[in-house]
UniProtKB/TrEMBL annotation, chain B:
This is 4Fe-4S dicluster domain-containing protein. Residues 4-34, 78-107 form the 4Fe-4S ferredoxin-type domain. One of its GO terms (molecular function) is 4 iron, 4 sulfur cluster binding. Keywords: 4Fe-4S, Iron, Iron-sulfur, Metal-binding.
């Protein structure tokens, strides 16, 4: 018993010391600890960056974006702004062309046909042009279906037919992008020589290109209007191709914001491109007598060349050799027009 | 009429991923697709938060608005579903979704997208309720059996709540009151245009 008694006093002392230590800094019960004091907050995160991103344990790293409210702005652009831009650009251009045709009519050959022709575009040039043009038309229709199909076409043919058509349109759009891109590159290379802007183009533009009145400003192989179309095709075509491939190979080069921007650029450039091509198709078909055969058969009437591309005609006649550019009588039945 | 919503209480989520596993198993979700995911923000730092996220079934769903073939529909309960038969796999719903819910299997050439797949609130799709075709395309239809989504049922801490919006908002409010703190209902402002004051 005495050994036990020896321990009692130090034991009591130790307990007292312990109680003293514990009592001193003890928090009062009224004071609650808020464990979320330093935690992240949804509103604060969205203000700092325009998205919330974290860490995920699943392999698909795109799922680490918790919220990207930019999607709402993209929706607004795509459903509202794009349809306005496209509608105004394309319908506006159509209206301008209709009014112009009613006012001016087809630009006739003032000196009439001479019956002699000269080669304007060779077979290779025409093949590249028509391959690119055909692809463009199908790409345009399938692309417009994505933006305008639901409000305009779906109510007419119903869900199943419209989805089936849209599915094929999507395949056509994706696959024809390749020959179209190749065509744009070839057009760029083969006609770059004749499409560098120069002072003559300024003169041509100042004289309105002969659109109003009976003026015939001189031009080389490509006049300023054609050079405009060339650069629209090369630059516009380049942009839609680049953004188009980015859309077709999703997330290879960018995250979600990059994809949204790519879609915006692709669609805006595309609708403006379509508007420009409507004008190009107009002038090459019903807008001007003797124009279509340039791309159709490859040969144009010498009088047409004299009136619209006089400097080019002089060049061609000056270097005419036995094999090409020799004006010769037109064959009996013309397939053009 | 009930208006179904999801609410993830980020203060309770422990990142166990039971919700992710339950969903994947119940619907036999194809490889590579995750209808539900748990995102951890500020991982390892003070203030770390984990949030379980799948489709929020938004009011005025942006996915439905941008779909070129109009394959989405909203049920009477407010659940946003879509038809895989009509879907053309264009990807627009993913660009518009603030939560990244739509997923696409890689089936086409060059990694192009197959039919979109996403959380269905365990409510299947346009096919007949509980049919084999519905299960193959969209997974189980628990809602038709009167059950709630499996992710919320399996949540180990009951941080993920699913059910009528009014009821789960009330549960959350009571929790916040009792414990004295709450980081808010993540995603509610974006999805439903309302907040639960915490």
């Amino acid at each position: 018993m005495s050994s036990f008694a020896r321990f009692i006093r130090p034991a009591i002392g130790a307990w007292a010391l312990l109680l003293l230590i514990m009592a001193a800094p003890a928090p009062s019960l009224a004071q609650q600890i808020n464990p979320t004091a330093s935690s992240v907050n949804e509103r604060q995160l969205l203000q700092e960056m325009d998205r919330i991103q974290g860490r995920v344990s699943i392999p698909d790293q795109r799922s680490s974006v918790l919220m990207q409210p930019a999607g709402r702005e993209w929706r607004e652009f795509r459903n509202v702004a794009l349809r306005w831009i496209g509608g105004v650009a394309m319908l506006g251009m159509l209206a301008v062309l209709v009014i112009f045709y009613l006012a001016r009519g087809m630009v006739r050959l003032e000196s009439g046909r001479s019956g002699r022709t000269i080669v304007r575009f060779n077979t290779y040039e025409r093949v590249v042009h028509w391959m690119t043009a055909t692809c463009f038309v199908i790409l345009a229709i399938s692309g417009l279906n994505i933006t305008f199909g639901r409000p305009l076409l779906l109510p007419l043919i119903g869900f199943d037919a419209f989805s089936e058509w849209s599915q094929w349109a999507k395949f056509a759009h994706n696959y024809l992008s390749f020959p179209f891109t190749i065509g744009v590159v070839l057009i760029f290379l083969m006609w770059i020589g004749g499409n560098i802007p120069n002072k003559l183009d300024l003169e041509w533009i100042k004289r309105g290109g002969g659109l109003i009145g009976h003026d015939h400003p001189p031009a080389r192989r490509f006049n300023a209007g054609q050079k405009g179309i060339y650069w629209i095709v090369v630059i516009g075509g380049g942009l839609v191709a680049a953004t188009g491939y980015q859309l077709m190979f999703p997330f290879y080069v960018s995250g979600i914001e990059g994809m949204q921007i790519a879609q915006i650029v692709h669609s805006v450039v595309a609708v403006l491109f379509i508007a420009a091509m409507l004008a190009h198709i107009y002038i090459g078909t019903i807008g001007m007598e003797g124009a279509f055969e340039a791309m159709g058969s490859g040969e144009v009437d010498v009088n047409w060349a004299r009136e619209h591309h006089s400097l080019w005609l002089d060049q061609e006649l000056a270097r005419s050799g036995p094999n090409d550019s020799q004006p010769r009588p037109r064959h009996a039945a013309s397939a053009a027009e | 009429m009930a208006r179904m919503k999801f609410l993830c209480d980020a203060d309770r989520c422990i990142e166990c991923n039971a919700c992710v596993t339950a969903c994947k198993n119940e619907h036999e979700v194809p490889w590579g697709i995750n209808r539900r995911r748990v995102v951890t923000i500020a991982d390892g730092k003070p203030g770390e938060r984990s949030v379980s996220m799948a489709c929020m079934h938004c009011t005025d769903a942006p996915c439905a608005a941008v779909c070129p073939v109009n394959c989405f529909y909203t049920t009477a309960d407010g659940v946003v579903l879509h038809s895989k038969d009509l879907c053309i796999g264009c990807g627009y719903c993913f660009y518009a979704c603030p939560f990244g819910a739509p997923q696409y299997p890689k089936v086409g050439n060059f990694g192009s997208r197959g039919k979109m797949d996403k959380c269905t609130y365990c409510a299947g799709g346009p096919e007949a309720d509980g049919s084999k075709e519905e299960y193959e395309k969209y997974g189980a239809n628990r809602l038709a059996e009167g059950k709630l989504p499996l992710c919320a049922e399996m949540c180990s801490t009951k941080s993920l709540l699913a059910g009528d919006g009014e009821i789960i908002a009330q549960i959350y409010r009571e929790r916040v009151l009792k414990r004295g703190y709450g980081s808010g209902a993540w995603g509610w402002k974006t999805a439903y245009r309302e907040t639960i004051e915490s």
